[in-house]
Amino acid sequence: MKKAGIALIVLLALVALGVYWAYNSLDVIVKFALEHYGPDIAGVSVTVGEVRISPGDGRGSLKGIEIGNPAGFTAPRAARLGEISVALDPATVRAPIVIVHDITIDSPAITYERGKGGTNLDAIQRNIAAYVSRSVQVSSAGDGSAPVADARHKFVIEKLSIRGAKVTMTTAGLKGQGVSFDIPDIELTDVGKGRGGVTASEAANLVASTLISRISQKVLTNIDLLRKGGVEGAMDALRGLLK
Questions:
Q1: Residue 141 has pLDDT above 60, yes or no
Q2: Which of 111, 132, 133 is closest to 122 using CA atoms?
Q3: Kind plus residue range of the DSSP H or E element containing 236
């Protein structure tokens, strides 16, 4: 009995240590979630260089995030995100609805590649939209189906900004070259506020569709960029982007 009591005390100590580690390791949890669930949601690889989030005040940053290109596209990646700063309500980190005060994505480098059947960003957005649809179906089924990965928590994002984004427009024929341009800063507010929060995939779907819309507007209103790209044959290779 004495040995059993000692074993129980050790077990409880280990559990307590594990809970303490989890609470004070938001950076590890966030990095794991992005790299583990990100590919399921977006249908492409997601790698994260560094995550630092303080469990005390909920502030932190993410660096070195790269989003891969879908199958059928030649560019090495669809996006390399600059530094992402985050500020969330630490009291809600493990609540069903997490309150995010601010997310700012600074200076992302985005590749807009035209391929058969559309662009790489269109393909990623379709993957995300399909994931959202599956999530809704599982949530409404109520039959014990396995939960979709990001349906466990919802988020209300008070402010989400993308600043200083640079886009490189290209095709497979240009072999990594293309025409680069900036797009206006994007700011979304009160995402999920009026509907009891959004899942991570729903937020990603909103960001992807907004980004594609802004890029398309820039392409259509700045056709002269194609003539000033300085890449031999760029006009012919990129002409399909305007169709």
A1: no
A2: 111
A3: helix 234-238
Beta-strand pair 97-106/84-88: antiparallel
Q: How far is CA 52 from CA 25, 66, 84, 202, 219, in A?
A: 9, 17, 10, 24, 36
Which amino acid, one-letter code, is at 10? V
Q: Residue 64, Cβ neighbours under 10 Å: how many? A: 14
CB distance 17 to 28 below 8 Å: no
Q: And the tokens for 203?
A: 């937020």
The residue with tokens 């960003």 is 121
> What single string gives the DSSP state of each residue in 68-82?
PPPTT--SS-SEEE-
Encode pLDDT of 40-66 as tens digits.
989 999 999 988 888 788 898 999 999
Record the pTM: 0.78
Determine what percent of the chain is predicted with pLDDT higher than 90: 36
171 contacts 219 by C-beta, under 8 angstroms: no
Q: Is the pLDDT of residue 69 over 90?
A: yes
Q: Which of 102-106, 130-134, 154-158 has the lowest mean pLDDT?
A: 130-134
Structure token digits, residue 174: 């240009």
- 83, 52 contact by CB (below 8 A): no
Does residue 138 sit in helix, strand or coil? helix
Taking residue 97's Cβ as centre, other Cβ atoms within 10 Å add up to 14
In the structure encoding, which two tokens stand for residue 105, read together? 């994505």
Determine the pLDDT at residue 28.
76
- Supply the DSSP string of 22-74, one letter for each residue: HHT-HHHHHHHHHHHHHHHHHSS-EE-SEEEE-TTT-EEEEE-EEEPPPTT--
